[in-house]
Amino acid sequence: MTDTLAEPPSERARVRRAASRGSYDTETVHAILDAGRMGHVGLVADGRPVVIPMLYGRDGDHLYLHGSVASRLMRGLAGGLDTCLTVTLLDAYVLARSAFHHSLNYRSVVVFGVAEPVTGDEAVHGVRCITEHLVPGRWDEVRAPSDVEMRQTSVLRMPIAEASAKVRGHGVVDEPEDIDLPIWAGVLPLRLAVGDPVADEALAPGLEVPPSVLRLDSAHV
């Protein structure tokens, strides 16, 4: 994809509404994808729009997705249907003096393209990318997928070649005539916090919380 802020990689990736918030450079797109944990994948299947939340992982200029081989969504994606993956991070409430100008500060990415199925070692690599994206370091602490589990799993690779980012990161925008109204206005930051680990009830006695879990903090969820 292009490394310029000015030009989108395609017309369908062009940010039209509030175009000044749009970015098309690789660094911005990748940073938002890496900060997110769940995306929403949309496509038209059997003449009907479908949007499904999915985990994902990034390796360079590609995303990996996975799901059951029995999934209609995964079969449609593997069959070469055009798809769209979106990731949105909420950063703050923006509370204006007027109802009309309330907003959110956010970072978002939209990726267009066609996903293709991968098999064998690359399929395992894709599952590893997704696992490591969710909890860095976790893959080396757990049992790897078995051959049976991989046969039950569809793994897809999607290029990040046609993507755009959109970011709002500023404060209140009010009408000039509203500035002197006796109404509180401002920004209320948001963050997703990590709580204390809760062990599985069937966990063997004496097992300690692993390093990958201890390393998680609010900057990595």
Determine Rg (CA atoms, Å): 21 Å
User: Between the first and last Cα atoms, what is the distance in angstroms?
Assistant: 26 Å
What is the string of helix and strand elements?
Answer: EHEEEEHEEEHHEEEH
- Let me know the average pLDDT: 92
Give unreliable regions as ranges.
none
Profile the largest sheet: 7 strands, antiparallel
Overall CATH class: Mainly Beta
Write down the overall geometry. Answer: globular
CATH topology: Pnp Oxidase, Chain A
How do the strands and helices of this protein lay out in sequence?
Layout: E1 22-23, H1 26-35, E2 38-45, E3 48-55, E4 57-59, E5 62-68, H2 72-78, E6 82-95, E7 103-114, E8 116-118, H3 120-134, H4 147-151, E9 153-159, E10 162-168, E11 186-189, H5 211-215
Antiparallel strand pairs: 1-10, 2-3, 2-6, 4-5, 5-9, 6-7, 6-11, 7-10, 8-9
Task: Give structural notes.
The protein has 221 residues and is an alpha+beta fold. Helix content is 19%, strand content 34%. The protein has a single domain (19-220), classed as Electron Transport, Fmn-binding Protein, Chain A (Pnp Oxidase, Chain A, Roll). The protein has helices at 26-35, 72-78, 120-134, 147-151, 211-215, and strands spanning 22-23, 38-45, 48-55, 57-59, 62-68, 82-95, 103-114, 116-118, 153-159, 162-168, 186-189. The strands form two sheets. Strands 1, 2, 3, 6, 7, 10 and 11 form a seven-stranded antiparallel beta sheet that branches. The chain has a four-stranded antiparallel beta sheet with strand order 4-5-9-8, with helices on both faces. The mean pLDDT is 92.
